[in-house]
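Why do we care about 3D structure at all? Because function follows from shape, and shape follows, mostly, from sequence. That is the central idea of this module. The next example makes it concrete: a single protein chain, its amino acid sequence, and then its structure expressed as tokens.
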Amino acid sequence: MPEPSSKAEYVVGVDLGGTKILSGVFTNSLKFVGRSKMSTKAERGPEAVIERIAHCVQDAVDECDLDLKQVKGVGIGAPGSVDSETGKVMFAGNLGWKDVSLKKELEKQLQLPVFLGNDCNVCTLGVHEVELEGKPKNMVGVFLGTGIGGGLILDGKVFTGFNRTAGEVGHMVLEVNGPKCTCGNRGCWEALSSRSALFRQVLEAVKNGQKTVLTDMLGNDLRDLRSGDLRKAIKQGDKFVEHIVEEAAKYTGVAVANLINVLSPEVVIIGGGLVDALENEMMSIIVETAREHAFPGSDKGVKILASKLGDDAGITGGAVLARRETK
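And the structure:
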């Protein structure tokens, strides 16, 4: 445990998701100290969620035998379109939020400076700074979870573009007449390769009589299906599940090739809960497909890697953001 001190020497990173809130305490040199986790309960509305975020931060700090007075700042990654300047979440579909003043409200409750970014930009920042030691000048982060998001580091800085919404890679259309996406389009990468997309395909197939070991494991309604169950099913020789995961990995490979063609990054990092659970089943297919589809010569020397930070990319990036902004 760190030695108690009254000086503000710590930063807190927060990862706000549709289902869970994660808070992590880090030293000023970004050494991880401790964490706390809480369910989001988005259906209770923004005010209640912001209260829960404040609790989660307080819990993480308590867990480390520290005091909020020892924290310099809080960096938070929130889903959807985020305006870092005003500290507002403009739109977050999976939270049901529109124009929520997250920074202002959280600062009121914690009495600490709060800094806000889009969740995938913040994850990319964490991977770039901590996992890759800030080395690549140009990097793309891709995160496959409930949805698919991305972050861009161009010329050493997070690139957010004209409307500050750059990096919405999950809404690249890969299949013009493909399945409907939550954004209203058809055939987005997110509608083909996210965890939600995979689960939807499994449930539809089972409803239509498809046999799978998943129903032996979890019952016919598959209510408690998790990404790890897909891995277990593949290990048990379930060809149906293997095919669905392979297809998702192929679409991801095509999308990665598109990103390489357009941006020419040194590194493409692939993270998120789905890849965490299925790295061995997906990564080699993703890399092979990306190399096949990249414009000849454009992928020369480009590294395509799975992130080692896993679920901690968000809190790590939040800590990087807080440290950077309070320097």
